[in-house]
Amino acid sequence: MRIPLLTLQEELQRVLEKFDFTPERAAHCARLFAETDRDGVYSHGLNRFARFIQYIQKAYVVPGAEPVLEFNQGGLERWNGQQGPGNLNARAAMDQAVALARQFGIGSVAVRNTNHWMRGGSYGWQAADAGCVALCFTNTLPNMPPWGGKSPALGNNPFVMAVPRSNGQHVVLDMAMSQYSYGKLRKYVEAGQDLPVPGGYDAAGNLTRNAATIEETERALPVGFWKGSGLSMLLDLMAGILSGGRTTADIGQLADEYGVSQVFICLDVSRFQDAAFTDALIDQTIAFTQKSTPVSPENAILYPGENVWRTRQENIRLGIPVDEAVWEQVRAM
Amino acid sequence: MRIPLLTLQEELQRVLEKFDFTPERAAHCARLFAETDRDGVYSHGLNRFARFIQYIQKAYVVPGAEPVLEFNQGGLERWNGQQGPGNLNARAAMDQAVALARQFGIGSVAVRNTNHWMRGGSYGWQAADAGCVALCFTNTLPNMPPWGGKSPALGNNPFVMAVPRSNGQHVVLDMAMSQYSYGKLRKYVEAGQDLPVPGGYDAAGNLTRNAATIEETERALPVGFWKGSGLSMLLDLMAGILSGGRTTADIGQLADEYGVSQVFICLDVSRFQDAAFTDALIDQTIAFTQKSTPVSPENAILYPGENVWRTRQENIRLGIPVDEAVWEQVRAM
What we know:
With 333 residues, chain A is an alpha+beta fold. Chain A has a domain at 180-221: 2-Layer Sandwich (Wheat Germ Agglutinin (Isolectin 2), domain 1). Helices cover 44% and strands 16% of the residues of chain A. Chain A has 12 helices and 11 strands. The first copy, chain A, has helices at residues 5-18, 23-38, 46-57, 86-104, 121-129, 182-191, 211-217, 226-243, 248-251, 275-290, 306-318, 324-331; strands at 2-3, 68-73, 76-80, 106-114, 133-138, 159-163, 171-175, 200-201, 207-208, 260-267, 320-321. In chain A, the strands form 3 sheets. In chain A, strands 2-3-4-10-5-6-7 form a 7-stranded mixed beta sheet, with helices on both faces. In chain A, strands 1-11 form a two-stranded antiparallel sheet. In chain A, strands 8-9 form a two-stranded antiparallel sheet. In chain A, helix 4 (86-104) runs parallel beside helix 5 and helix 6 packs across helix 7 (211-217). Chain A starts with a strand and ends with a helix. Chains A and B meet through strand 2, strand 3, helix 4, strand 4 and strand 6 of A and strand 2, strand 3, helix 4, strand 4 and strand 6 of B.
């Protein structure tokens, strides 16, 4: 079934207010969840909401906690997220990275002791809406083996990059360091389908496209084999060093994933580049890649964010697709 | 055969001085080439030198050209590399990114119209030697198909991340966006060996470990399939937008790869973190990953940069391994 965006947002806001969110913060947090569904990232919107509430009940997420500044020098800041709601903290951090970029050309806000930011791409879109180029990343609990190892000791540490277009159709990459998330693997198991490309290893150490096998071995494949393994470690180290917060190794010592570390870097290109230049540059590059001979005639060559924009228009027009059981569960909260 | 580091450096310097480098710039450029071999990245040191000289002869690389500042606001700068030697330009750009980071906490120097930086990792080590966290990236000519396409329309756009350790054993990732470079593929062809993991596609569109096949199809695999394809595009767009320079699409219009765009971002962590904290954090994370159950008993779990450091110590002690024919060719220049 589909429901209007505003209905979804208001329902989530109602529940959040029952869990000690002020009306203003509840509205903001609910909007970020609802916009995640609006943009088609259904794994981290409504479907993730019940778990978010559980984390509040377990005191992993502190509804009223706001981030506090711990260090500032020019364009570089460190914050303590105080275990506040991850999406509100991340939103505030990117807002401040934009403000620093306006003042110093470039700004970085590192946040320790924050929480799962839900959909990382949100903060890329946010910076691009402000006309900025941005990158941001988070660490996670250990959920991926390092290259050469079999048991999880790295996070899949989502990484986001964004460049702005004046028509709002930004180019935004939102990628985890594992080829597939465990959520994605579950969907293939439930659908009884093979993965399109190898996603991990079987017990004998061979690459496999069988999602159930990877769930059992916990040997998710890093993107690009040894390369994604290395990239994951560097993102984790940077997040830990810049924020002074927990690394993936530290998070692995906790009962669950909370109190993570994140970094938000923003560059204000509007100071030296008019939007027409940036628009033309991006249009040219997209057109150039789309002139590559397609693998098959029905195969579109998409740029990162293209599907998000298309889904957004569709969901605004037709309403947000929700799982009826999940929706009823939230309505009963 | 092995030769002393200084012998290699002096010989390269001698040749560069014949090609209109001042003694000072020749020494600097030669040192960067020699240190590349010292650190075991043999594809971009002595073995690449003859091609570098050819690019000077073709006027792609202008020996005396120095980068000029085109825009500055706080920690954000744009330079014109004026087609100077790529390694000297990159070195100067990262030096300035470090200087900006000292002043503003974070600094970014984007350089347009520069040249192949040879070994990207050099600039990560450079920033880490200055006690900084850094990331940098370059675009390239089109050499990789976008996801969904068969013909090259993206660069493999090397990406570097570095974090410092006070003992000099920094963690430095230096990765291109293709699973293997064409240089690496050539080595497997010459050795008659299969690639360890799939590196591209055969003519029928199946993943293959046969390097010769990939040379023919020109369908190199992006790291992480669609993910590396997206990451490559974002790095190219950022480099083009921040520098105002050529994108991969633009470089593809030239007779060869020159006048590329690069970005150097540096964060000065020494302001808020003493080295002991950073050292302990990095040590802990490395130890944590190395506790992962090894795939096989003889399999080491390495951190990015570990082999570089080990090779460096060995090559300083024993001398730099060089291909005798290549060495004689340079000596005859």
